[in-house]
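Why does this matter for the project? Reviewers at the last site visit asked to see concrete outputs rather than summary tables. In response, this paragraph embeds two records directly. Each consists of the residue sequence and, immediately after it, the corresponding structure tokens. Nothing has been edited or filtered.
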Amino acid sequence: MATIRDLKKTINYELSGVIEECYVWQLDNFEKAEKAEKIIDAAIESFDKLIARVNEKNVENQKTHFQTVSKDLHKSTDSLMKKLVKL
């Protein structure tokens, strides 16, 4: 199992990648930039929720908890990227 620090870094890396892709899309489509802002807001909200879940102290099985957080991260990232592609 990865460390908590590595999981936090992974969360930061993946969701900041989504945000960066949104900024690149905004540069190419400046007339529709507000559409990407919604995806950026969703990425930030997802980041906050996932970090809060990682920081939970009263967890029965830490390994299972962190695996679930990791799976949710990948689902969230995939969902946000699909929304960006649809723009």
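We now turn to the second protein, recorded in exactly the same manner.
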Amino acid sequence: MASAAEQLAANLNLGVLAKATDLKKRIWFTIAALVVYRLGTWIPMPGVNPQVMADMFRQSGGGILGMFDMLAGGALQRMTIFALNIMPYISASIILQLMTTVVPSLEAIKKEGEMGRKKINQYTRYLTVVIAAFQAYGISAGLLGMAGAHGPAVIMDNHLMFRFTTVVTLVGGTMFLMWLGEQITARGIGQGTSLIIMAGIVAQLPHAIAATLELGRTGALPVLVILGLLVGSVAVIGFIVFMERAQRRVVIQYPKRQVGNKMYGGEASHMPLKINTSGVIPPIFASSILLMPVTVAQFSAAGGPEWLTTFTAIMGRGQPLYLLIYSLLIIFFAFFYTAVVFNPTETADNLKKYGGFIPGIRPGKHTAEYLDHILTRLTVVGAAYLTVLSILPELLIAKWSLPFYFGGTSLLIVVTVTMDTVAQIQSHLLAHQYEGLIKRSRLRGRRG
């Protein structure tokens, strides 16, 4: 009986999907946009010797530089037009969000509604150009002094024009990806920026698996470690799904009210508060903040001052300073982003406005304090979960030289973005199903 009901529900969903033409267009648009992105990660940057660049990256591509390449989908190692990926845009978004909390004029703009949001987005784009230009110039300066394992320069043409073309190309690639992400969000399925990052990680997974198996074949990595890695990856994915779905349900009671001769209200509902309200944002934001200065420093370390070389060494993969700063940034952004997306005072005021209350808690200020207390405890657990998930795999990667794609951050991004995208698809299907029911009821009403 249960299997028959499940089969009927599956057939109904397939039928709805077949008729949901708008959803199909959105899915195809998203796929096409991601294909364009992946093609761009293979277009080489003008003036760069890709063979020597790949050889150099194999020697010094660990640490944060390797993480940057993971988030860029391998574009940095190949030094393509999308080498900076969309990380400058994420850095600009972080800076603008921080500034809106401390600069009164920006805070006032944010409160203007849709017009304010458009202004903030425009400022974010301008700042993205500045950050991308800064990073691109640092990369061009570093490439000028780099050499491969066999001695030839990384670049083919060493003059001022190379700096100019590098900055223009990399900034243009970042701005195109920013625009592409906005188009996916508006005309496709899912959050465009997150999907672009996820697509780069997923595209590199087959190569990472092959490289890991090759380490096992040559004896550089014990077979038991490989088996433990596979089992651990599955366990981590299950843990991520569990934590992302976990929530604390706060009971909300609505009083009874009489309208005419009928009684309304009196029912109880729940306010779901997720353990990890910030989602995948803290690890991405923390990575972006670390990547912005360190990437330029690593590219510029060759032939640079000694302090720059020392800085890149202590900020390498698995180094204590890197792990400490990374953990603190994750914790900070977990609390910061939670405070941005959920305002206990505003929520308490809305509940009071519509007559809702939490049993045993006075409306207004006491309700806000109660919600803030619950949210703080949940965020502590969520921040600890994100920190452990991001730091422990880093230690294993540093010990066994495993690919970054098996790290907790990459798995968290892939699983979280996939869950959000599937949820959006289900919402579109449900909305289309309701539209069909409304149309049928209207047709029956006209016939009657």
